[in-house]
Amino acid sequence: MFKPTEKVDISALAPGIQHFLGQAAYSELGEFDSLARAVATAPNLAVKEGLSAAAGRALSKHHGLITEIRRRGHEPATEMAPFVAGLDEFRAKISGADWHELLLSCYLAGGLLDDFFIRLSDGLPRDIGPRVAQLLGEDSGTSVLVQELHSAIEDDQALRSRLAMWGRRLVGDTLLVARSAMPAADPASGRAGSNEARIEPVFTELIAAHTRRMDGLGLTA
Amino acid sequence: MFKPTEKVDISALAPGIQHFLGQAAYSELGEFDSLARAVATAPNLAVKEGLSAAAGRALSKHHGLITEIRRRGHEPATEMAPFVAGLDEFRAKISGADWHELLLSCYLAGGLLDDFFIRLSDGLPRDIGPRVAQLLGEDSGTSVLVQELHSAIEDDQALRSRLAMWGRRLVGDTLLVARSAMPAADPASGRAGSNEARIEPVFTELIAAHTRRMDGLGLTA
Lengths: 221, 221
Fold this sequence. Notes:
Two copies of one chain form a homodimer.
Chain A: H1 17-40, H2 45-71, H3 76-80, H4 84-93, H5 99-121, H6 129-137, H7 143-154, H8 157-180, H9 192-217
């Protein structure tokens, strides 16, 4: 019988290394792009400065993954290509109606996808999985986003409600992107049933971490 | 009598350290912002990838300057504030009508302003000038911009003419920004005359380097 408290063996769920690296690399480039837009439209210099550091972190994760792709003798552009349409559509969907929604998207989607790829990297070979996990686990510099959202929400009940709704909406889109990265999404694999059982607790973990981020902001998840 | 071939003593032209660091730091943030926009609108993944590296270089120069500001016990936002309006207006002016114009702006204005601040850093104290010069002199990763502009121009005479004109126009705006960073721009300094004589050869150097960049692209300067 399946016990959700057990450490889940994710190796069966992990996509191939190239698939993983291409998708994670383009995902970090998307996060960079979102943050760069938040930098460009920041309301003051101190925030602009903090956000630019966060954008730099996403970019350096992206370049770390690119280095791994090159190390294996592949072309980054070729490896990322299959994920462009889906991830661009995702980023457009979560870009938000204003600066605070964009900020929340950067924080929540960036956090969830980092968590997800770190979790997935568990299934990669030992010569690359831990290195990638460390890279993706590096501080994202998002404390400035938390601070900014926190103080904006504090005195504005209408904004708080709107952002709470936005957070709930974007977690759905983000989980769909994550879901599409896993092989069980392909019914032809013939292992769909057992993979679903393995995936569920991973998603439970991801949602729990998302809920903690929402709670930390004072937004009811 | 003044001889233009002599090494120009720029120390009298150098602004105060805080002025220098605040302005150079915000200038690099503007370069980053322009490059990030070029990343977002890049026509293909390989170029996007190369441009993202160039954006990362500008960002790391920016953060290096921020570190210098903090090391001296100052607040980066406070130090950059006086330059925001002027540099934002400049960046808006040189953002260009399309992706190729934006690319040319990043390459030419970024190159000229790096040259300029490196030149100006000569007049800073020994405990900071050389370190800043080294930081700003680091490879900007702009070879991808050159490559991209080169191949776009190669088969398109109309684009070549348009970009040649754009390059001539934006050098003027960029030199004005550089000019405003120098104390002789302030007639109240009482040294305007002698400073003008010192500034001229610096600008001659800057324009010569600009012309080399234009020539390298196959654009008549």
